[in-house]
Each structure stands twice: as C-alpha cells, then as structure tokens.
Amino acid sequence: MNVIRRRLIGVAPAIAMSAFPWRAIAGPRLETARLLCGYPPGGSIDVVCRTLAARLGGSYARTVLVENKPGAAGRIAVEDAKRSPPDGATIFIAPASVLTMYPHVFKNLTYDPFVDLVPLSSVASFGFALVVGPKVPQSVVTLRDFVTWCKANPGMAECGNSGAGSFPHFMAMLFARDAGLELTHIPFKAGSAALKDVAGGQVSAVMGTEPSAVPLLKAGRVRALATSWSDRSPFNPLVPTFKEAGFANLTQREWFGAFVARGTPATTAEYASAALATAARSDETREVWQKVALLPEGSTSAELQAALRKEYDFWGPLIRASGFTPEE
Prior knowledge:
By secondary structure, this protein is α/β, with parallel strands linked by helices. It is 37% helix and 20% strand. It has helices at residues 3-7, 44-56, 75-83, 96-100, 102-105, 143-152, 167-179, 191-199, 210-218, 266-280, 283-290, 301-321; strands at residues 30-37, 61-68, 90-95, 117-132, 158-161, 184-187, 205-209, 223-227, 253-261, 295-296. The strands form two sheets. Strands 1, 2, 3, 4, 7, 8, 9 and 10 form an eight-stranded mixed beta sheet that branches. The protein has a two-stranded parallel ribbon with strand order 5-6. It is globular. The two termini are 37 Å apart.
C-alpha cells in the first residue's frame, strides 16, 4: 500500500489519468525539463529519476533530462532546487530523510523544507533490512538469534550504515536501543560499500535499504534477518518483519518525493504533481521498479506536505533522545 496513503487520509487506489489537467493539454508544455538528483548515477534514486524522465518526456516536456548533482549527502542538490527558477522546469527528486531528518542532524542547514520547496507528489518508496554475512554464524537465522549472538560476542556486535546521521544509521540505533544492545555503528560513504564489507566478512551486519541489498541477497552472499515493512516485504516475502520479531518501532519505509522551488505557480505545481503521480503509477514504471525493490507511489501535493510534516515531527524527538551530536 502507498506509504503516503497508509499514513494519511487515503486516496483512490488508482488515479484516473483523464482527471488530470495535464492530460487534456495537447503536446508538451515545456521544451526542456530536468529531474534533479542529489546522488551519483546507479543508485535507487537515479533509477527512479531515469524511469520518470522516460515516462514524462514528450508529455510533461518535450525533453526531460536527469541531472545528477551529488555532494554533501544530497544537500547540494537541495540548494540547486531552492535557487532554480519557479517555472516547473526543474523538479527535485529527494529522499524523505534529506528533508525530514537533516534539519535535526545538521546545525547549519541552509534550507527549510517547509519554506523553500513546494511538494508535488510522492513517487516511490522502499524498505530497509538488517543483513548479515559470513562473519555471523549460519546458526543465526532470526533477529532474536542475532541479538543473543551479539550479547555473547560484544567484540563483533557491529552494524554498518550508509553514513552517520543517515536513515539506516538511526534505524540501527533504534534497533540497538530496543534490543538492549551495545552495538558499534560503522559509517560508510554508501550503503553498497557497507554491504560489500558484510559480504566479505569484514563487518558483521548492515542496516541497509532493500534495493541496495537485492543483488547480494539473490546471489546468496548475504542473508536478511528482518525487513522494515508493516507486513511481509513484497520483494522478500520469506523474510520476517522487525514487527514480527518484536521491534515495532522499526516499521519504517523511506519515500522519494518530487518538489519544485518556492514561488512556482499553483497551476504549474498541480500540473506537475498530476503528471508525476501518473508516471510513477504506470505499468511500465512498476515493471522496472519491481526488479530493484521499489514500490511505486503517487500522491497529491497536500498529502506529501502532510507526510513531510509527520516524518519531521516523528524523527526530531528520536534523534535528540539518541544522543546523536548534530554535524556542523
């Protein structure tokens, strides 16, 4: 189920494309549009952007390009989006954490997600998984087994993540707190690097995203002990959820949302919102994202704004209570 719809007031299971004003306009409205991505090519968000660009090209704009602008854990792209002309030609595709967690993580953040950006639509979501490798004995088959093993082997009670202050980092901190574990958190520059070291036996476990773990899980080089979905993962249905193992606080998903700069006319934002929701929910998109463990989304601007606020309010107290020291 759509994470935005699940958490908020609910929308129809599918949006009738004929109801969208952009569908009634003959031909592209813009010559060129760009989807701004704050991360390098090859990752999940890059796949999202390129799939959407293919669906929007020729309809939303004659040409839709993907521009990767990595750096500062996605913050450079937020600045670019914030400064872009408010004409709908630049659409920023952002993971929720950049807008909902970072304000609690960085002391000198130069953007306000509720002031500088206009929400358009959610486009995709994904789950997290606790993944272990050969450093953890094969006899450890459940999450509770892993907790017991960590307590018996405190020197190896460690968990990699995609960077200090990242969504997986705080997920791992929540897990350690609720399990009563002294868990050593090992930050990496990317989740893929953490998974590589887990598969190689250098690190015991990683709290990572399902999309990044899929190739190694399929190859049998690592194994997932739990996923963060409320029900069994549609991509790894044999793996129990954290909730089933007694860790209900870890029932979390992250979503990718689309935004434009403050000052974008309401009619332009509405047009873009409808186009993006339709593109995300198309059969062609679903087929591509199914292969990389991404769930298509789609929401109104108001629903995305409410989800943004809900996530922001949820993570603030938890991050402060975790004892995490905000970065400069």
